[in-house]
Amino acid sequence: MIRFRADLPFERDQATRFVPWIVALMVFLGALALAATTAVGGAIDRWDNNLSGRITVQVPADKAGPKTLTRLAETLTETPGIAQAEILSDEATRALVEPWLGVLDSDLELPLPAVIDVETEAGAVFDVNLLTDKLTKIAPGVIVDDHRVWLQQLIRVARTVEWVAFAILGLIGLTAIAAVIFATRSGLAVHAAIINLLHVMGARDAYIARQFQMQAMMLGIRGGIIGSAAAIIVLILLATMSAGIDVALLPSAPLSLAQWPLLIIVPIAAVVIAMATARVTVLRALAGMP
Amino acid sequence: MLRFENVGMRYGIGPEILRDINFALEPGSIHFLTGPSGAGKTTLLKLMYLALRPTRGLVHLLDHDISLTPRSELPHLRRQIGVVFQEFRLIDHLSAVENVALPLRVANIKQSTIDEHVRELLVWVGLGDHLDAKPPTLSGGQQQRVAIARAIINSPRLLLADEPTGNVDDRIALRLMYLFEELNKNGTTIVIATHNEALLQKFGHPVLRLNDGELDIVAGRAERLEAAS
Ligand SMILES: Nc1ncnc2c1ncn2[C@@H]1O[C@H](COP(=O)(O)OP(=O)(O)O)[C@@H](O)[C@H]1O
Ligand SMILES: [Mg+2]
For chain B, which domains are there? Predict the structure, then answer.
């Protein structure tokens, strides 16, 4: 571990023992939160591209005669805000359910509902209930599936997850700041005699504060290394796990290759916060000396 | 150099330990500061090296009225004062060289300059064989020499010593006094706190005598002889 030659014998301080661990926790959670945010952000983008602007209308198999379907499609196309309505072929419908039901034997007499794929105009707002009523008159039992509502909820959940992650990170950050303040204050008390001596020799407050800053930097770096290492291990595990599962809706990998370097920001931020906290704490305490 | 006007000092809400202290030290002078134990010698020295602010009165140091001097300028004044503390106050985890180097480090002097001067001075006070020794491994007399080297490393204009002869035998006390006189001849203003009456008699320097919180100034032997003739 890197050392610096301090005028103050910090290595005997008890109160600093737990600082690296709190910083490590902060860095660990910070890295995970950052990874989660970028991953969720990426997933949301993909959902937006894939799903937005689409409504699916399902017609029960027994009502799905060609005439009914055509009338439904016409009604839909006439509705303001709808750009296009396409009756999916039997094969296309089978392909849709494949992820859930597996490859279906086309001879199998499983009554699949007919599906009309509706493309909405950008930014169009619908009353799905109204639309459903209108369509029910033509074909009782239709189900209007507005992905956008579902997607909006999903996005809301994802954003909430992000906020919670950052709120927890913020709390840990505050805990780390409190820990550094506590360690610094107790350091000031433990080393009061030497600090007094340096003061009397003509040391400026900044000189004494620098000693504590360097100490905080060392503790921060120690915690940063531990926390980053733990986060990297977890993220690599997640990446290899999610590589095995191909689920379109889930974030594919926690971080893309280009995003990994972002993680260095977290420990650096932690070290800077620790140093700044120590500096401010010392300067405020020393301001009371003659 | 240093002037006190009507200085009073009390700790917190305690009694006034020093009352109406008035004196002035000429540049290049050497004084003893004496008085019974608890008379306030250490307190008076602390006021001189700006470790305490007086509760009342004026302290003039190196052309500065301390009460009017911004706090940010005080370090510069403190660097021109060397202090030999009664209990030495060496830092145990630093070597002799590092201890003596502290006043220079604190003043942001270049490390190469520091190394050169510090070693030279430690050799001069007879600690050439103990440059890297930690204070706890040194004898009392050796620790005191480290403390003195630290006090004079930055060529202070004012040197204050608090009972420097208190913990050493007579032979070392005498050598110490000769060392102080040597520094004084080179222009350093010196105040030595002591309650060793024999030392006062032997050296005959002017004396600041504290009694009951008040200060009397007794002229030195040289001045008295001059006045008599
Ligand atoms: N930090 C302090 N707080 C309160 N009282 C103190 C403090 N330092 C010294 N005193 C009191 O001030 C008086 C003078 O002490 P001091 O200056 O150390 O005397 P001396 O050095 O002449 O023995 C003593 O009564 C002592 O108890
Ligand atoms: Mg004393």
Answer: 1-80+158-229 (3.40.50.300), 90-155 (no CATH)
